[in-house]
Amino acid sequence: MFFRSLEHILKYRKCNFYLHCFGSCQSVAWPPRARSFTTGATSSVASCSASSREIVVLEDGRLRGVHYNKVYGSDENSPDGLFTPHPFNRRFAYSKRPLFPIEPRNLRIYGLRRHKKRGRGKKSSARGYRFKRQKHRGSKANSRTFEGGQTPLFKRLPKWPEAWLSRQRKTLDPLNLSKLRYFIERGRLDTRFPITQRHLYDSKCVKVKRGVQLFNVNDYPFPYKIHIEVAGSDQSSIDAIKRVGGSVTIVYYDRVNLRAHLKPYKFEVLPRTARPSIDMVHYLEKMRARGCNVVYIKPMWLLKEEQAIAAEMAELEAETLTSSELDPDESATEREQRLVKLYRERLLRFGRPYE
């Protein structure tokens, strides 16, 4: 705590008696009974001379102390210059406990002295040589996950199946349309012929592992007319290529077929083309809806379903031809839309026709 004046100190110590005395006079003689370490008449002379001197003066409405040299120094009244200890001086005090709490720890300004920086020397660098593991760690523990040495929560919870399944997802190899344009301009790809995934692999345009997927950022312009075969593409790349007269073909390859497509010299007999699963069929048909040409061998279950749908549509068409509600002015497109609507209604009512 920082004391502004002696009055502030007395208020802090709650000395009402001294406040009453100091508040009613302009100057105060302190101490009223000064002590000295001399004996006999000399002690009495020093005490008398010290008691008649002023150590506290009232200036500008504040109590200000007088330097002890002016109070106890040598002058006409005390030619010997005997020293009488100041009550605030702890050097000549009878007790270690001060009269008032005036100490450096109370008078210092907090934050003025900065902490000692560690790790600036050699060997132990002011850290000591014991408890090396605790003292010589590089940084503090991460407060978000550190639990005081206990196994954190993210390590106690199992990683399977969410994390394991997320790692099993097969992602295609991305190819930016701007990089494809750069390779064409450098002459490493020929736009006169269809560009396949093997051409992209041989020209080192992309490292093919699971199939190439085109993507475009901010509708980057693509001025070259190309016909490219990839495993996937986004809508922006499809629109950019078709805008200049090109085409995007989605070709299905499984792991073995893709390896045979990229490195046919490693196979004595090329493997047969695999049929896609139901999830892959849904993905390929979604690519067809985006405007791509899709190439894959239809699986047997899809062929049976298409045959059943065709038979059901033929029955519906025969029923509409024999009904009296047939419109003679109906076009082929309108008749097809009406048959599809009837087929969907019957599908919702009776289920699939081939089951």
Automatic annotation (TrEMBL):
Residues 174-249 form the Large ribosomal subunit protein uL15/eL18 domain. InterPro entries: Ribosomal_uL15, Ribosomal_uL15/eL18, Ribosomal_uL15/eL18_sf, Ribosomal_uL15_bac-type. One of its GO terms (molecular function) is structural constituent of ribosome. Keywords: Ribonucleoprotein, Ribosomal protein. It holds the Pfam family Ribosomal_L27A. Residues 115-148 are annotated as: Disordered. Residues 115-139 have a biased composition (Basic residues). One of its GO terms (cellular component) is mitochondrial large ribosomal subunit. GO terms for biological process: translation. Belongs to the universal ribosomal protein uL15 family. This is Ribosomal protein L15.
